[in-house]
Design goal:
Helix content is 31%, strand content 18%. It is α/β, with parallel strands linked by helices and 174 residues long. Helix 6 links the parallel strand 4 and strand 5. It is globular, with a radius of gyration of 15 Å.
């Protein structure tokens, strides 16, 4: 509980000049904060079952100013993926967003639009990803879309825990 209450605390006098222009971009977020938010994304993903099947139960949390301001999980096939759901639920004044998502955002249009491309329409500054998507149409392509748009991405965040949660739902035979 103490960690959750202290996550938003920033001492402005310790910020670099670059960070002062964007005080809520957590480029240097502490490892325990990153892990806390990714675990929240894992828990959010569990809400997707069983409705999301055959898609994997992916979770996403969106953080602003050290606090979770939106959550999403994979919905039934043809409906929103975790990122799209969380983005749609954002407050209108959201800015300088950090996303935590258990699986790499999709890069292609299937039954739903590309989550990575949808993210470009929002003020996303950083994305933490639990694990890369093994789907041959993705496999890093979602990450590339984000980094090409100057969104900072960190992968393999709590990857072992994420895979324990979703690996049995990932398709490996294409």
């Amino acid at each position: 509980m103490a960690l959750a209450k202290n996550l938003g605390t920033i001492k402005k006098n310790r910020l670099s000049t670059k960070q002062k222009r964007h005080p809520f971009i957590f480029i240097n977020m502490k490892k325990e904060e990153i892990n806390f938010f990714m675990r929240e994304a894992i828990l959010e993903g569990k809400k997707a079952l069983p409705d999301c099947l055959p898609n994997p139960p992916i979770g996403c949390v969106i953080v602003q100013d050290g606090k979770i301001i939106s959550r999403g999980h994979t919905n039934k096939p043809g409906s929103d993926h975790a990122e799209a759901m969380a983005l749609k639920l954002l407050p209108k004044d959201a800015k300088d967003l950090t996303l935590f998502v258990t699986l790499e955002p999709c890069s292609f249009f299937g039954r739903t639009p590309s989550c990575a491309k949808t993210m470009l329409q929002y003020p996303v500054k950083k994305v933490y990803v639990g694990t890369l998507d093994p789907h041959p149409k993705n496999q890093g392509a979602g990450i590339k879309i984000l980094t090409d748009a100057n969104i900072e991405v960190e992968t393999a965040v709590l990857e072992k825990e994420v895979l324990e949660s979703i690996e049995s739902y990932l398709l490996h035979d294409f």
